[in-house]
Amino acid sequence: MTTDEQAREAAIAKVQPAVVQINVSTASGASGIGSGVIIDKRGYIVTNYHVVESAQQIEVVMADGTHLTAQVAGTDPADDLAVVKINPPSNITVATLGDSSKLQVGQEVLAIGNPLGETQTVTHGIISALGRTVSEEGQGTAVIANAIQTDAPINPGNSGGALVDLSGNVIGIPTVAAIDPEFNTPANGVGFAIPSNRVRFIVQQIIATGQVTHTGRAALGVRVASVTPQLAAQDNLPVDYGSLIVSVTANGPAARAGLRAGDIIVAIDGQKVTDNQTLSDILVNKSPGQTAKVTVYRGTQQLTVTVTLGELQAGS
Question: What pTM did the predictor assign?
Answer without folding.
Answer: 0.84
